[in-house]
Amino acid sequence: MIRIAVDAMGGDYAPREVVHGSVIGAREYGVAVQLVGPPDAIEKELTRHDHAGLDISIVAASEVVAMDEKPGRAIVKKKDSSIVVATKRVSDGLADGLVAAGSTGAAAVAAQLGLGRIANVDRSAICCTMPATTGKCLLIDVGANVDCTPYQLMQFGVMGSIVSAGLFGKKSPTVGLLNIGTEETKGNELVQEAYKLLKQQSNINFIGFVEGRDFPLGKVDVTVTDGFTGNVALKTAEGIANMCKIMLQQELLRSTRTKLGAVVIKPALDGLKNRVDHNVFGGALLVGVKGVCVIAHGGSKHTAIKNAIRVAKDMVAADIVKKIENSFSMTAAGSKS
């Protein structure tokens, strides 16, 4: 049975929503869940749910890293924090994967210090699943590295391709480099140099430059960019999705006629919501570290936590970490610059 350590104290609605989502996740996905945090607080929340027969255990941790704390300092100082203890479960082989909401920075720092980077991987990156007209696509990096080198962008492309193939069953996922145009002459020095390195990689299906509108339309499976640009793209996409939802509600409630129409099209609206709702996707993946680490949104409620557990399970089952290790052990492709 796959074992997932969950930081029960991470996020705006912890521990209540985290425990709730963990109970559902354990039941639906048949995994063993290890809830990490103050036992009394976790036990209190567990009593709210029927968890008989489920493999749910509590791992004690006396400290919590708050959202407003500086990640690096907090992780080093608070050795018995829930995120540090949960990460240690993975590094010690007592858990197969980690799920953490709350501070993205704290989860990333804890994973990088506690798990370590895979050999020959220059930087770990946050890989996010995004909705697309054709299903799902990946955006990497979305915030772990504000400044990147061309070599690091090339490595993100390789790791993103492995994740896409492993999680979504893509035989030869397409990889594109985010730019202001698709022409080879466009873009700054960073993307121009990264383009050359990505083009040299025989182990990925690199299709060249892509624009911001291309990945939502399903024109590429993996979109590579630096963490600054990726985070802006991610938050913009979330904002546009919420804007469309609000505007659609306003229009549907404008008159009696449109209200009646809303009833008729409700199943289609529910389907659309599920296709673009970040809670359904579960969380982002920290790739490049020696362990499975899924970082859920700080505002995650039980549905998002449940789905983050699903993502962690799928990552473990697909052996993504080992595949990245094997890829980078065979070759340190490209010229480091």
Question: What's the helix count?
Answer: 12
User: How do the strands of the widest beta sheet line up side by side?
Assistant: 3-2-1-4-11-10-5-6-9-7-8
Average residue-wise pLDDT: 91
CA-based gyration radius: 20 Å
What share of the residues does DSSP label as strand, in percent?
15-25%
The coarse overall form would be: globular
Count every beta strand, where a strand is a DSSP E run of 2 or more residues.
Answer: 11
Low-confidence stretches: none
By helix and strand content, what is the structural category? Answer: alpha/beta
Distance between the termini: 42 Å
What does this molecule look like?
The chain is an alpha/beta fold and 337 residues long. The protein contains twelve helices and eleven strands. It has helices at 16-29, 39-46, 71-77, 82-91, 104-114, 150-168, 189-199, 227-252, 256-276, 278-281, 302-317, 320-330, and strands at 3-7, 32-37, 56-60, 97-100, 125-132, 135-140, 174-178, 205-210, 222-224, 284-287, 292-295. Strands 3-2-1-4-11-10-5-6-9-7-8 form an eleven-stranded mixed β-sheet, with helices on both faces. The longest helix has 26 residues, at 227-252. It is globular and about 60 Å long.
